[in-house]
């Protein structure tokens, strides 16, 4: 039996995922969580083999949680689910060393097959998305710039971003100016739109 953890904050979606997986004779759902902060502890106590993780979770996002699992419980395989089939999102997922990447609107049988594939040590990625990612431009922003832009996108003002990122307000303003320039954006709101559409944040 493949021991699976499901991490999804929307109750109806999580219930549907669990119900689908429980129909499979070789898959056992051993844990369900609603936030990224719960994943590591739940995976550890339930002896999870495959973690099926929504990319957009409250607390730690799915990719951060997947990275944490990879570092602290390397035996746990990770399958990221997303409704955003953007190449930049896939690039971020692969950089986080996830084992699989599946769109939420994929046919139900693809989910079970993806779980089996990552459990067997294979990397499971939607073929069309992989080709699109191959052809796209790399993100021009540094990890620090991405952090600043992500915090700004959450609606935080310069002071809050500075406090959260342990930077001075002047440095945050400089980062935002550089980001707007690098993305050829009109302003920071436009920079956030470009980065989101590209799957970089």
From TrEMBL:
One of its GO terms (molecular function) is DNA binding. One of its GO terms (biological process) is regulation of DNA-templated transcription. It comes from Amycolatopsis coloradensis. Pfam families: GerE, Response_reg. CDD domains: LuxR_C_like (cd06170). Gene3D superfamilies: 3.40.50.2300. This is DNA-binding response regulator. The modification 4-aspartylphosphate is found at residue 54. Residues 3-119 form the Response regulatory domain. Keywords: DNA-binding, Phosphoprotein.
